[in-house]
Amino acid sequence: MGVEGCTKCIKYLLFLFNFIFWLAGGIILGVALWLRHDSQTTNILYLQLGDKQAPNTFYVGIYILIAVGAVMMFVGFLGCYGAIQESQCLLGTFFTCLVILFACEVAAGIWGFVNKDQIAKDVKQFYDQAFQQALEAGSDTSNGKAVVKTFHETLDCCGPDNVIRAVTPLWREDLCPKKDSFLKHLLENSSCHKKIDELFSGKLYLIGIAAIVVAVIMIFEMILSMVLCCGIRNSSVY
């Protein structure tokens, strides 16, 4: 016997929320794949300075997002099917998956908040090491110059966040993007430290918005799934 009245409305409301949840999972998966293959992050984070690899903390977060997006799409489909079929077993499984996914999202959010400054800090330290090697007389024996030029060309910047940035273009034009004049360089080119901060803070901002929206949807879905489960159990008595 199918559910009736308000419980039937909850059934279709849960189906709608799960469809939105499934779409959100697809969007998160798409955004994560875009971040993974974005030219700016890829060019920088695939660099190698001698035996030292660029910090991969950012990519760890991206791989977590890819997994979360894929799981969300599966759970969203499970919720849609369970709601339409009015299956207590499927809805119970769906609720359990939501609780686990919600806990994982909270844990990932805490991890991201704790490491948000460390990601940019590690990349800036990696850049500073490469920049120092590129300025040394014997830097031709290393790939420091190539690493620095990749940073400069990708982020349109020149030098670290100090006075060296201002004078570097005067004597090392091979390291910095060419400008029509030194004054134009000072006005248009920010320091690479500032550009690195902007790069990662902007992308983490997008991830944070998506996580908050998904968390709100998940809370509504957990409430609706339990209400629908109770409604199905009560309707089967009559």
TrEMBL record:
UniProt family annotation: Belongs to the tetraspanin (TM4SF) family.
Keyword hit for Membrane:
yes
Q: Where in the cell is it found?
A: Basolateral cell membrane; Membrane
PROSITE patterns (UniProt xref) = TM4_1
Q: Which residues cross the membrane?
A: 12-35, 56-84, 90-114, 204-228
Sorted alphabetically, which InterPro entries does this protein's record hold? Tetraspanin/Peripherin, Tetraspanin_animals, Tetraspanin_CS, Tetraspanin_EC2_sf
Keywords from the UniProt entry: Adaptive immunity, Cell membrane, Disulfide bond, Immunity, Lipid-binding, Membrane, Transmembrane, Transmembrane helix
What Pfam families does its record include? Tetraspanin (PF00335)
What is the name of the gene encoding this protein?
Cd81
According to UniProt, the name of this protein is Tetraspanin
Where is it chiefly localized? membrane
**Topology within the bilayer:** Multi-pass membrane protein
Keyword Kinase in annotation: no
Gene Ontology cellular-component terms listed: basolateral plasma membrane
Provenance organism = Rhynochetos jubatus
Q: List the disulfide bonds.
A: 157-192, 158-176
What GO biological process terms are annotated to this protein in UniProt? adaptive immune response; regulation of cell population proliferation
SUPFAM superfamilies (alphabetical): Tetraspanin
Coiled-coil region: none
Q: Tell me one GO molecular function of this protein.
A: lipid binding
